[in-house]
Amino acid sequence: MSSAELSEDTVEVARVGPGRPRDPHVNDRLLEAARNELAERGVAAFSMRRVAERAGVSRPSLLLRWPDADSLIVDALDSLALPDLPNLPGRLEDDLIVLVDLVAEQFGSAMLDLQMRMVTEARAHPGLLERFQERVIKPTAARFDEVLSAAIDRGELSPATDRALLADGIIGVLLIRTSASKDRRPPGPEARRRLVRKIIRSVTTE
């Protein structure tokens, strides 16, 4: 964004003045629009104007929330982080289903494209890939490790279980099936439950 554009937008924002409280749903729409813009066009071609258009929001409203593209991109990536885990049932299958459901909510064509974009732009923007890994990828892996470690403590899994490999397998299957679906959406609830049961059987069968 040029300095001329920014100064023009600042004037527009000033004209808006105080008004109604900001609608949190507008924030959600803007973050989703920013993720789609980033996934499709990358960092260099990222446009605040297009983000506003995608979200159906005026550009001054966008600039009230995020004054520049860098801050919006960072928050758009952070918004993909999994929410805190709810109280889990305390049984491996049920716990994994809760976690897989949370992960599935984060998946979709934009998420897949965004992951690929972060990888392809790693050389030009290493900080963004690092942030994506630190705020999204690693915490997700840690949640799986927590659930699988608890299952080992309860005796539901062998202590020799490779927790990282098992977690990678679950996430990998979700990614593959999401990519292979016609609308590039994750498997539905029943399909996810069948997946969890099959994977558990594969690691608990003697």
The topology string of helices and strands comes to HHHHHHHHHH
Tally of contiguous helical segments: 10
Q: What percent strand?
A: under 5%
CATH architecture of the largest domain: Orthogonal Bundle
Overall body shape = elongated
The helix content, as a percent range, equals: over 70%
Radius of gyration: 20 Å
Number of strands: 0
Please tell me the overall pLDDT: 86
Low-confidence stretches: 1-20
**Which structural class best describes the helix and strand composition?**
mainly alpha
CATH class of the largest domain: Mainly Alpha
- Alpha-carbon distance between the two ends: 60 Å
The biggest beta sheet reads: none
Total discrete domains: 2
- Identify the quaternary structure here: single chain
**CATH level 3 topology of the largest domain:** Tetracycline Repressor, domain 2
Q: Spell out the CATH superfamily of the largest domain.
A: Tetracycline Repressor, domain 2
Furnish the topology, listing elements before pairings:
Layout: H1 3-16, H2 24-41, H3 48-55, H4 59-65, H5 69-78, H6 92-106, H7 109-120, H8 126-153, H9 163-180, H10 189-204
Biased composition (Acidic residues): 1-11
Pfam families: TetR_C_11, TetR_N
Domain HTH tetR-type: 24-84
Characterization of the model:
- Pfam families: TetR_C_11, TetR_N.
- This protein folds into 2 domains: 3-78, Orthogonal Bundle (Arc Repressor Mutant, subunit A); 92-204, Tetracycline Repressor, domain 2 (Orthogonal Bundle), CATH 1.10.357.10.
- The chain has 206 residues and is mainly alpha-helical.
- Residues 1-20 have low confidence and may be disordered.
- The chain is 71% helix and 0% strand.
